[in-house]
Amino acid sequence: MPTFFRDLGHALEWRARGETLRVEAWGPDAVRVRAVAGGDLLDGLPGALLPEAPELPSAPVVTLGEHSATLVNGALTVRIDAGTEGRLTPDLPAAGGQLTFLRTADGSELLAEEPHHFWWPGPRLHTATGNGYHRLEQRFRAYDGERLFGLGQHTHGMLDQKGAVVELVQRNGEVTIPYLVSSRGYGLLWNSPAIGRVELAATGTRWVADSARQIDYWVTAGQPADVLGRYADATGHSPVLPEWAAGFWQCKLRYRTQDELLEVAREYKRRGLPLDVIVCDFFHWTHLGDWRFDPAEWPDPQAMVDELTAMGVRLMVSVWPSVSPASENFHVMGDRGLLIGTEYGPLAHADWPDKGLGAYSAQVAFYDATSPEARAYVWDRLRDNYLAHGVKVFWLDACEPELKPGHPANLRYHAGPGLEVGNLYPRENARMVWDGLHAAGESEVVTLNRSSWAGAQRYGAALWSGDIATTFESLRTQIAAGLNVMMSGIPWWTTDIGGFHGGHPDDPDYRELLVRWFQYGAFCPLFRLHGFRGPGQVLEPAMTGLPNEVWSYGEEAYGILRGYLLLRERLRPYLMEQMRTAADRGLPPMRPLFVDFPADEASWAAADSFLCGPDLLVAPVVEAGAREREVYLPAGARWSDAWTGQAYEGGTTATVAAPLERIPLFLRDGAQLPIAEAS
């Protein structure tokens, strides 16, 4: 009988029919699995895992048998079955190299590969697309009652994504982070930035890469808090959020001039309102891709930054990856190969308005964020034109990148073909600022990104939910989207409070929505007001929306919003504790109830409330006109209404009052937090 297995010490390898499959211990209670259709495994492909595996507390144990072999790494055991390989052996699987992931403690099944058919294909499929690339498929068994969380940020409104088909591609509001956390006690990272999809069906789970060279995924075992920590160990921990970033961020589309922006900041200070960040949005530049202020509208950036700094306010500036043909950088970047290439046609990837073109749009290119040289070039522009004036906070907008039309197969990156590496772009774009600021001697790095990918947290990259609707339905969707981001290892997240597209400050119905959204936003990791208010929105360089400051929505709303600004300030010490925990342990500051209460089955189904740290349960009001709501309070703790003091037993559902000025909040086991303003 041929020998299929090899003991590599830290890894177990199986080879048959030309395929190579390796299971390698990769951090405590975790393994990395790689497979290629023929030949040796490929090292150095783009992925999310750090270059070096986390240190193991003890060496893995490999055991070889005649028909199977196992690797034991802490709480996780992996078995490879050799398969029948054409022999009539009914008690063995026909598909060779089939993997089963087991709980070491009792040998029970966590997860298992499952062949599509008893003959062909097996659990892994490599279909040639040419030149050494394949359409890759990886299949796993489905389990009744399993719940699945993570996968980044999506607008389908589901917290538990079992039953969904999710595209693995970056779009405005649709953010791919291919990490899943299962209610069965495991986490799985699809360690590939390839364009594809994941199908979480009742008949099985299937991961698909449209064109890539190697299957690569990582699995860890444990409760949700455990697997989030292991994931951070394997892909990188976030830094601690700076104190100032936990405060209030004021933004609108858009402040058109230096004087307009400064006057808003001055008004916050005149009113005694907290303000930590104010935002200079797009079209502040001379041309798209110049990465500098237009002196006609921003004549003295240094004086602006100096005045804001004296008020304790930081300026955040919008930076786009697009480069217009009118930009001073377009031709030199094209000549040096610093723009994303194409397989067919010119280097234009989108049409976008630019100054000086009248009613016409420019056919813009994008810089190649996967190229170290291109990142260095763009950073040099940011250093000379922004950092030199004291600007240290950057808003990395449209960083999917925003292709029109979205044809990733036509793109050629420094890191590889578009289909193989396309999802990597937003993370490498954030890396550009991280590397640049650190090289300039800055220790605090926070970027706000419209897209992300696995591992971006290690570069100080926050995420916001993109250009979303101004409706209660959209607000409901944000709760699930944000919690799934937290379950994907990105601890810094926010929304455009009030939604992005529309909303009139004088509309009573919209004022109610804005108040409810602001209440929710006060308990998100980042607290930021933004939007393009008013009707008749036209995309052009002179665009600007109606007012979007906290005093823009009438006296009743202003009184409520002011109260939540001050509440956020009172909670900042508590929030900073959670940010330190996120950096140390990978435990997000905002999280689903089941992370802290995994033994409570009902907590796994609670999709419209969340924990802000361990002691505060937040239940946003997401229905127009609602003045009360039901709240599930997890078993295993006693809860008290933070506004009234009324006590509740865990494992119950309470109906609580929610007048317009109040978001339901509950404190755990007698916790003391300064929710109510001191009298």
Automatic annotation (TrEMBL):
Task: Tell me the Gene3D superfamilies matching this sequence.
Answer: Glycosidases (3.20.20.80), glycosyl hydrolase (family 31) (2.60.40.1760), Golgi alpha-mannosidase II (2.60.40.1180)
Q: Which GO terms describe its molecular function?
A: carbohydrate binding; hydrolase activity, hydrolyzing O-glycosyl compounds
* Record-linked Pfam families: Gal_mutarotas_2, Glyco_hydro_31_2nd, Glyco_hydro_31_3rd
Residues annotated as signal peptide: none
Glycoside hydrolase family 31 TIM barrel domain: residues covered: 239-576
List, for all copies, the residue spans of the domain called Glycosyl hydrolase family 31 C-terminal.
586-671
- Glycoside hydrolase family 31 N-terminal domain sequence ranges: 21-195
InterPro entries linked: Gal_mutarotase_sf_dom, GH, Glyco_hydro_31_C, Glyco_hydro_31_N_dom, Glyco_hydro_31_TIM, Glyco_hydro_b, Glycosyl_Hydrolase_31
| Assigned keywords, A-Z | Glycosidase, Hydrolase
**Does the entry feature the keyword Hydrolase, yes or no?**
yes
One biological process GO term for this chain? Answer: carbohydrate metabolic process
Domain of life, per UniProt, equals Bacteria
The answer to whether UniProt assigns keyword Hydrolase to this entry is: yes
Family, per the entry? Belongs to the glycosyl hydrolase 31 family.
Q: What is this protein called?
A: Alpha-D-xyloside xylohydrolase
Q: What is the lineage of its organism?
A: Bacteria, Bacillati, Actinomycetota, Actinomycetes, Kitasatosporales
